Amino acid sequence: MKAIRIHEFGAPSVMKLEEVPDPVAAHNQVVVRVKAIGVNPVDTYIREGKYGPRSFPFTPGTDAAGVVESIGMGVTSCKIDDRVYVAGTINGAYADKVLCDERRVHPLPAFITYSQGAAIGVPYGTAYRALLQRAVPRAGETVLVHGGSGGVGTAAIQFAKSLGLTVFATAGSPAGIELIRKQGAHRVFNHREDGYLKQILEATHGMGVAIILEMASHINLGYDLTLLAKNGRVIVIGNRGPIEINPRETMTRESDIRGVTLNNATDADLHAIHAAIVAGLENRTLSPVVGKEMPLADAAKSHEAVMADGAHGKIVLVP
Question: What is the pTM of this model?
């Protein structure tokens, strides 16, 4: 089979399409024939070596969707030819076939495309963990999705809407603005427009928002603290460097800054996350947004695209 392989850390060009042996399912393992692969910002950090040592060569990626090709002894949750999405692999997702622990393979409804299925794992898992497991919202609260047009942002808007929250969202391009409107955000703001912070506060009648889901805390965290209501929570989802803040803003509001990462999710957390995702897909409150499809051979270009400004849905590779 074909797979993207990385033999050294570095720029996107270190990713090479190569022939490798097909994976074989052992006990409690599943082999999935891949139809689409999700590209996540974390994939670029791993490629660069920011997330610690790796055994070379390796195949990047965690998210995919496809059809179950074979199962090992003891597998009971799926069968051959089932449509599934994958949230975590053993051999890496940028490939024709992926080997997975049974617990990382989940059913994909027939009306959800494979490209949409590849857009689920990290984005929807992160959005659920950030909103439900870290922010712990109450129906009726206002949430600001600060950077709502990317994969995590659109997922967060959909979850928030289903929970009875009032949803504010920002984007920085006309396409992004239109996308978050279509996702059902109650109020939409352009975070490249002067005065948008004032507009957000005015929309809350000066009370502030209860929750902020922050995709770019290296830019926005200091501003976010001024937008919070009393006992508000900023959930740090994305960050690319240090920032100076005024802690007094947290004192006067008795507010919290809470980090989030899927890496800290326990098996019980992950079980809850994907039970909720599957239910949301089935009842159609969740519908992944695909912004761009690219061939697997263009993995390097996909890493450039996923880190560019103006995210608009999910970037997906197709074998």
Answer: 0.96
